[in-house]
Amino acid sequence: MMLGKLIHHKNRSRLRYRKQVHLHAVKDLKRRFLMLASVVAAHSVAMVYFEDLDWWQAFWLTMTSASTTGYGDLSAATFWGQFTTIVLIYGLGITLLAQIASDYVEIRIMRKEMKIKGRLEWSDMQDHLLIINTPSTNTERYLSLLVQQICNTPGLDDVPIQILTPKFPEGLPETLRAQGVVHHTGDATSPGMLNSAGVSDAKYIVVLSPDSLDAHSDSLVFDILHRIKEIGSKAFILAEAIDDANRERFRQSGAKAVIRPVRAYPEMLVRSLVAPGTEQVLEDLFRYQGDHTVRINVSLYKVRWADVVTELIQRDLGTAIGFEDTMGKIVTHPKSSEFISLNALILLIGEDQLAPSKEQVAEMFAEHVRQAQK
Predict the structure, then answer these.
(1) How far is CA 263 from CA 259, 268, 351, in A?
(2) Are 18 and 119 in contact, with CB atoms under 8 Å apart?
């Protein structure tokens, strides 16, 4: 733990140092531009005064001399004109121009490196999907699956994606960058970091639980939600909660959807973004409490799927959501008019419902089977 904090502190110190270097480089470039402008102005005035040129000719001569182009159409002929050119242009102007070009290239390289490493704000990003935090284990694989699912979902496929995390101080993995993902390096609980990641301009915000096995992660998620609420973001916010008891607290803090951190199925998270409420249905399918699925091993022959669904619902025995056919294949959501033969029914029943026995189901559809055999 102490080693992790030390590494995190060193990364933050390195980040502040790089930003300071970048700011100093930009200031130096601006200062040299001002100095060059002063030299150009002074030399132009000297050419007007000593060489009796008009203002445009003086400026033209100054620029062709400073850029070492030297067309030869104009030149300084008097002693003071030549002396001024030597001092201002050859001594200062050309040197300043070379330094400006060098500084510009250096700043471009530095900015590119800082963007790759998530150390610059993406100020041009609007209506994006902001992912805050990253899983502590299998990070790259989970994010790759999540981003791939987002890109394959209609309505989200053209939404820019940004990740706010301290996990990748040296840059996102190539698998994520290849999908157009950008990131901002930092801790969401640090002052100003959420603003730097464009929380106010985001269309969707996903607050992941850093450690899906540590209940203390809920405290971090709650803190982040509270900070987002203070900023006043209008984004659709989804948060992961480990402890079900924290779900209501998260909703009161601005989360429109709350879901358990299911790392093997990022599809559940994406579905809750495009169809809020489905996360509750999907989660119930994974546990016995609440609505849950059961399998009834019963054989039926040539019954209409619409009759199966209707009969079960009318008798309050559950909702048929699929079946196993006579070849052992699981079929979900067949056409209502389709006649099916099956070895087992898969039902969705409520917490207080009792699953029907296979004898009940067989008796229920006995008449349908007899009519089909005639």
Answers:
(1) 11, 10, 26
(2) yes
